[in-house]
Amino acid sequence: MEEIDKKILEFVDELIKQGKVENQLDFCFEIKIIPQQYSMIKTNEKRHFSLKHIQRMIDKFDLNPNFIFSKSNEMFVKKAD
Length: 81
Fold this sequence. Notes:
Number of domains: 1
Order of helices and strands: HHHHH
Radius of gyration: 12 Å
Largest sheet: none
Number of helices: 5
Structural class: mainly alpha
Distance between the termini: 37 Å
């Protein structure tokens, strides 16, 4: 499994923990990914999250792109006060 996919799956777990999505199926609906494709990503069947999916996560859930693409530990973009 690609490191980016691992980070996104970690992000999904955090979304569920924080109550921002109910479950993995709800997450799939929110970013418009077919649940079967999500399952294939989780089981490492040569599927990956697309840039469109990542952009939807950034827009919808304030995903910090630096968390996915670099070494940042911050999953969420911090909102300006």
